[in-house]
Amino acid sequence: MAILWLMVVVLGLTIPVLAMLLKGVLGAAKSITPTVGAISGVAAAASTDLDAVIELVTTQNYISQVVAGLANYGGSLAVALPDA
Amino acid sequence: MTMELPVAIIILFVTLIVLLLAVYLLATIVELLKINAGLDEVLGKVGEIATKTAPVNGVLDAVNTTLVAGRNLLEGLFYQKAGPDAAGLVESAFPGEGPRFLQRIGRAGTVVPIGEEYPRGAAILNSLLGVAPAPAAPAPAAPAASGGRITLRGRSAPSATVVEEPSIPGRLSAKGSRPWER
Q1: Which ipTM value was assigned to this complex?
Q2: Å from B141 to nearest chain A CA?
Q3: Residue B10's closest CA among A2, A17, A1, A5?
Q4: How far apart are CA B26 and CA B12, in angstroms?
Q5: Which of A26, A44, A64 sits opposite B45 (nearest CB)?
Q6: What kind and span of H or E run contains B150?
Q7: B2 to chain A: nearest residue by CA?
Q8: pLDDT digits (tens, 9 = 90+) for B51-79
C-alpha cells in the first residue's frame, strides 16, 4: 500500500518536470525555425549578389589585353631608350 | 477499496504523462519538419553560391599570373634602362618599394632615393626629343621654351603646370594626381 502511494507521489512530481522539459524542447525547436528562414533569405541574397562573378571572365580578358599592350609598350621603350 | 484510490491516481498520472508526451512531441516534430524544409531551401541556395563561385579561384589565379608577368617584364625593362638608379627611382616614387623591387629582380644593394628630380632621365628624353634641357629651377612663366624634367614628386607650381600640359616634352611625373583621379 505504501509503495502505491509512493508511486503516486513520484508520478505527481514527474509530471511538472516532464512538462517543463518538453516545453523547453519545443521552445528551442520553435526558435530555430525563424533563424533558418533568415539564413535562407541571406543565402538567396548572396546567391543573387554572386550573379556578377561571371564578369570576372571579362575582367580577366581585359587584363590580358592591358598586359599585352604594356608588353608592346615596354618593347618599344626597350628599343627607343638606351640601356643603363 | 483502499487499494483502488492510489491505483486510480497512478493510472490518471500515467495517462497525463502520455498525453503530455504526445502533445509536446508532436508539436516538436512539426517544428523539426519546418526546420528540415527550411534547411532544404538553404541547401539549394548554398549550392547556387558554390556553383557561382567555383570559377573564381581559377580566374583570379590567371589574372594574378598575368599581372605578375607584366610586372616582371616592366621591372626588368626598368632595371635594364635605369640600371643602378632603378631601385632609387622606385623608392622615390613609392616609398618603401625600393628594397622589394631589388628583392624581386634578384639584386642586392642599398636603396638610395633619387629625390624629386631625375636629371639623367630628363637628359635622355630631351636628347631623344631633340629639345634643350630644362634649367635647374625653371621659371613658370616660360616652360615651353625649355626642355622637360622628370620629377618623381610633388605638385609644385612648375611641375603641376608641366604635368597638365603634355605638349611639353620629356616631363613625367610619378606622383601627384593620376589621370583617373582628376
Answers
A1: 0.77
A2: 30
A3: A5
A4: 21
A5: A44
A6: strand B150-151
A7: A1
A8: 999 999 999 999 999 999 998 888 888 88
